[in-house]
User: What shape does this take?
Amino acid sequence: MNLDTRTYSQGIAGEVLAVETLLEGRPQYFDPDNIDEADDENTIRYRWALNELQLPNDYDPADTLADYLNNVCLEITWLSTNSSRDDYRKTRAEILRTCGGPRCEIIRESTDGQQIEINTYDAGQPVDSIRVWAPILAEQLDELASEIGPQ
Assistant: This one.
């Protein structure tokens, strides 16, 4: 793995963390018109997430997941299976984030707890894998995969 590929993987992981931050919702004292305010930690993280995803300060965080999946990601495969034990439904979302140059996939499996996995490939070979803790994003992707099922 070269340093450029690792940096690339970390950039996509940063996007996933930014999506998670926006899914938490707008902080109580966030003022989109006042960028010079003395921000608390939540507001600083929220402003970072907006900047990371190149979104305006007045962005509605309720649209985060739909906008990210529809406007940033290239392809999504939804998988869902029923387990014979305890009527447990396993889901998986495979999100192609980039291709051409390094290929980057965002993977969510319902058996991975609250984590999202970012896998990067170069010339078809796996070169990097990063796991990100993102409980809200994980739950929402699980729900979508369960509703949509295999495609």
Summary: The beta strands are 75-82, 89-98, 103-109, 115-122, 125-133. The CA atoms of residues 80 and 149 lie 5 Å apart. Residues 3-23 form the longest helix (21 residues). The helical segments are 3-23, 41-52, 64-71, 135-148.
